[in-house]
Amino acid sequence: MSRPRASFQVPSRLWSWVLLAVWLVTGCATVGPDYVPPRASLPSAWQNESKAGLASREADPKALATWWTALNDPELSGLIQRAVEGNLDLKKAWARLREARARRGLAKSQLFPTLQGTGSSSGTWKSEDSGTGKTSDFYTLSIDAAWELDIFGGARRSVEAAEADLQASREELRGVLVSLLGEVALNYVEVRTIQTRLRIAQSNLKTQEETYQLVRWRYEAGLTDTLALEQARYNLESTRSQIPTLRTGLEKAKNRLAVLLGEPPGRVQKELEEAKSIPVPPLKVAVGIPADVLRQRPDIRRAERQLAAQTARIGVATAELYPKLTLSGSIGLETLSLGHPASGVASLSGGPKITWAIFKAGAIRQNIEVQSALQEQYLIAYQATVLSALEEVENALVAYAEEQSRLQSLKEAARAAEKAVELAGQKYQSGLTDFGDVLEAQRSLLSLQDQQVRSEGEIVSNLVRLYKALGGGWATWVLDEEELFFRGEKP
Predict the structure, then answer these.
(1) How many Å apart are CA 369 and CA 374, to the nearest integer?
(2) Cα 322 to Cα 131: distance, rounded to the nearest angstrom
(3) How many CA atoms, within 13 angstroms, populate the side-chain half-sphere of residue 209?
(4) Over the stretch 245-277, which tens digit does the pLDDT of each residue have?
């Protein structure tokens, strides 16, 4: 006598449900508003684009992408490369990007059916007094499947939102990169500025020491009074007192630079120990037009993507108003022996299930209102980001141009102060003037020379802020699936 064999025959009704499911998924509409990118009202040109050092011509994308190379400072370029490789804020932003990518994968998984396998084993034993004294085993195996059909597009809107969130995280990473490059350059310029100020202060200190010795000799010879001697002394010590403050600022700038590189404070002290001049900015800077800012600034691009994500979430909330259709099925096998599964009993079950939130006291519609209000907030945030970006660029333009005019006046004043110091010293030695004129000339010269150096550093810093405001720098690096690398340096 042959054993019964387990066999499966899919009912035609189940095939009908599967075909219906495919038709529903491919043919139904997606609820909720479709995203339309916002339009920003922008001026056709910058207000200060024609001032000194600025050119209204179209900005070169390659030049903007590698703006620090315009300063012709290889040491600065090396520091920027190290910062991209080691900065902790950039690594944290990269981790958030990976998180957003994984969340997009989670959202996409809602579009597909789920399969779950289960198995169990049980055994019974009866003693010879109450039964046969034999042991019997029982095995069950089953595969359960479930698929919630995305009839009204709630899951697809979730994927749309997750994709926009991923793009927003990518722009956030680029925004951190733009800020990082700017901060590295600003701190580097500060280091070089303070080093130059220190050199000038030490040079003036040496001159004032010579003046003090001259006054002391004249005092000992009875050619001048105690007042001139004390004036020379406090002028000398006043200049000497500025040097520790400058050294403190220099160490702080170096330590900040090391942290930006992701290194312990003090790591860059030796390599920046040699005093070098402040980088020289280019003669002309092309600034482009305001519309370029929308394409270049990561914070604007991020705000736009956040608005897109929130628009999709309105559709997710709206889909809760409609019924949900779930197809489920199970294939099972019950047998007394794993060695002969064909001798067992097979089963196949399945069918649709419809769920519909009939009454929730208005919770679903209130959630739709919540998501719509959030969308309005993101739209306002986008508009505010655009306005802030335009303000930042305009401020950077006027600061860069006006500081150059200020520098020219300071140079003229410093040259005049040098002549005044020389003339005052000659007249004092000839007895034609008192020491007060020498004192005033020396103090003015030190102040003007210090202001001139600070102005030179401020011009370069304002240029860095301008490039940062224009969104320069992020296009130089490629966002790979696994790393952030410099375009052209790595394959």
Answers:
(1) 9
(2) 58
(3) 7
(4) 999 999 999 999 999 999 999 888 888 989 899
Pairwise CA distance, residues 385 & 381, whole Å: 6
Pairing of strands 477-479, 345-355: unpaired
Neighbours of 12 (CB within 10 A): 7
Q: Give the confidence band of 126 by pLDDT, cuts at 50, 70, 90.
A: low
Inter-residue contact 347 to 378 (CB < 8 Å): no
- How far is Cα of residue 80 from the mean position of the Cα atoms in its chain? 15
Q: What angle do CA 397, 400, 403 make, to 5 degrees?
A: 140
- What 3-state DSSP class applies to 123? strand
Mean pLDDT (the chain, rounded):
83
Q: pLDDT tens digits for 27-78?
A: 567 889 999 999 888 888 888 666 666 766 677 778 888 899 989 999 999 9
Model pLDDT for residues 382-411, shown as the tens digit of each residue:
999 999 999 999 999 999 889 989 999 999
Reported in sequence order, the residue ranges of 209-303 that DSSP labels E, i.e. its strands, are 285-286
116-125, 135-144, 175-184 — most confident range:
175-184
Say if CB 297 and CB 53 are below 8 A apart: no
| Bridge partners of residue 143, in order along the sequence | 117, 331
β partners of residue 324: 355
Q: Do residues 175 and 51 touch, judged by C-beta distance below 8 A? A: no
pTM for the whole structure: 0.84
Q: Sign of dihedral through CA atoms 86, 191, 389, 382? A: positive
CA distances from 5 to 341, 451, 457 (A): 8, 98, 89
Answer yes or no: are the C-beta atoms of 180 and 477 closer than 8 Å.
no
Q: Is pLDDT of 131 > 50?
A: yes
102 Ramachandran zone, left/alpha/beta (phi>0; psi -120 to 50) = alpha
Contact 287, 462 (CB under 8 A): no
**E strands of 261-409, at which residues?**
285-286, 324-335, 345-355
